[in-house]
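#random but structural
TW: two for the price of one
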Amino acid sequence: MTIWTGLTGVDHRLSYTDAGGVRTRALIAGPEDGPPLVFLHGTSGHLEAFVRNVPAHAGAGYRCHAIDMLGHGYTGKPDHPYEIPRYVEHLAAYLDAIGAGRVHLAGESLGGWVAAWLASEDPGRVASLQLLAAGGTKADPKIMERIRTSTLKAVRTDDARLTRERLHLLMHDPAKDVSEELVEIRHRIYHQPDFVANVHNLLCLQDMETRQRNLLRPDRMARITAPTLIVWGRQNPFGDVPEAQAMHEAIAGSRLELFSECGHWPQHERADLYNQLSLEFLKAHS
């Protein structure tokens, strides 16, 4: 069994789309006329973060797009710092390229940060918003250094053990949720020449000055009008529960769900629970 086994009964394809001049990899599944749902991964991540979620959502009638974001996975890596407005610009260009106007967004970690920023800037474009262990509301030097150091070690040293350790940081129970296949997928991504060359651009948000000007502050979150679901793991190593509660308080009408025995990948670690919750939320706001 592989992480792709769940897709064997689902009509899907891996596709490359020109998004504002950036070649962008996407996993696309579900009926062509279904409501568009875009999944966005976290820092140094890739679309495989959502392989446990796409089948359920595609099967429920949503046109799913799990994309490699700007500078990530097998998407193009232009040589400039990847700050949040750049990610948002790339996401909007992808939506334009696929002809999507109003979409549902589900973003994990960095992906939630980007999705929330777009929702605050262009509310007419976002039908609903899911923030899964979303980043961007705090600038904790210890966590930022942990992300920077662990990623650089894994990228600059061709040793799968370091990639495995980077993935282990994300999960409450790595033995259950970090397969050797997932390690191999990420190891190959990390050691593409253009990924190695641009990893400093990808990690720019772990620089304090850069992060401060990109923070998802309460006044910005207050501008979000889309129905919003916040999902957080109680054992999230990159943010404690009060961070999620503050996000919930800043976004009017939002809903907060806390998952036990869960770290930084709730959609992956507690996929069955997340899929049911997400589909109920989407049904209520479609």
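TW: number two ↓
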Amino acid sequence: MRRIYEPENLMEAQMLIGMLASEGIEVFLTGRDLVGATGELPMHGLLGLAVVDEQAGYARQLIDAYNAAQPVAGDEPESYPGTLIC
């Protein structure tokens, strides 16, 4: 098992879990139970996505592609230029 990514929040974590699962990658979210202690614990590094070692490279490629995504020209709302519509 290898920790491959630290999502910023639970929403990003769940979205990435769904994306990776759709590609056949089994993902484990670590630190979910610690999020309730925010304020008492530092927020950075609590959450982590982990996958089996054999799938770590492919999972990391998918997450890198997600992080590099740019909005398609004309697809973003006029009030929020540069924002992806999901």
